[in-house]
Predict the structure.
Amino acid sequence: MGPVGESTVAREQAQSSRRVWSRPLRRSHPLRGAGGMNSVVLGARPVSVSRLVYRFSLAGLLAMFLVALGTGLVSRQVGTEQAVADARRVGYLTGKGIVEPAVTDGLLTRDPAAVAAVDAVIRRSVLLDSLLRVKIWRGDGTIVYSDEPRLMGQRFPLGEEETDVLRSSGSIEAEVSDVRRPENHFESRSAKLLEVYLPIETPNGTHLLYETYFSYRGVTDAGRSAWVNFALPTLGALLLLELIQIPLAVSLARRVRDSHAEREQLLRRAVEASDTERRRIASDLHDGIVQDLTGVSFALTAEARKGTNHRRDVIAGSAGQVRDSITSLRSLLVDIYPPNLQEEGLESALADLLAKPRNRGVNGTLEVDLDALLDPATASLLYRAAQEAIRNVVRHSAASTVRIHLGREGDRVTLTIDDDGRGFDPQELAAATDDGHVGLRLLAGLIADASGEMEVYSGPGAGTAVTVSLPLS
């Protein structure tokens, strides 16, 4: 491809098939990309104590709610079972202790005197509180007594469970009554009743079925009372535990924040130490071997002018090789540390940076549209971003054109390095990063520390664009 403009147009036409790669240090944020492209911001967010404490408190409250809910359900179930057991005991005590002694053999034939005696006992000592109804059955399903007079003498088929209880001497059963059954047609259809039945005997040993009906409200009240007695104290204890743990969570969150800040500070110190060391190496190379090779080159050139043709050719070839070595060393010096970044500015350093791809046959152009002065830290970071991107272009892209654009968007400075190379699959680059190629990832961390953002757009056959945005101040 020829001019950079054609490369940019081709890239924009391929945007619909390009994907973005990102490797944030901690967290990524989706942005709206042009042309349907997906983009993710590279960078790290500082640790927020309030956010960590909020998450801890929310998790604690959720756990507390689940524990309280489970405790409430269990305690309510226990309360309900206890209320049913109490109803069974009341049914047994009233049946065996109060009603059975008042039953005579005349009740089997519904003798009025026998019925009246049982009725007087039941109304005086049994029908109290939640116990609402009493029925006494004969084995053939005839109701020989009920506090509802209209039921006496009527006959209804007994169920299998009632028949089993009637035949045994010590069993007692409790269940929710089915008010739709014929023998319950005098009961309210909306009322929920608990039915307890057990066998009692007449003086001659005949078994009768003693059946009592309790209001189910007493059962639910007992379950609710158990829930209040057990779940609410449990909830209060958990809430107190949560409040006690919040200061600990705040302390731990601050330690995490301080550790993160210390790690970032160590990273900055490492980068500063790396810059210092590279500056020293560049200075040593420039003042040492480059000067020596330059002197040798001049001496060989002068000697070549004095000798024979063959000698002249050999010396001239050696001088040319030395000059090539000097050029390579000077390029290496620029790559290690740009000597003109502080003296001549970022634009000059970026222009020198394009010398390396040009030596490899890559057409490079620089566009600067910036009307603001950059502080040294920002300029150095932008240069490092361009340096890493150009290095990747030379090593991996097989591009014919690369463009560097430096501009301004509002209160931010933007740097874009765009090539028309073969691009890459984001997953392949992610795998390469996992294998130790972490140049872009480390660079993204430094940019994030400076409140900046970095995006990498690419796709197979669609080239690559690296965009860095930093605040001007």
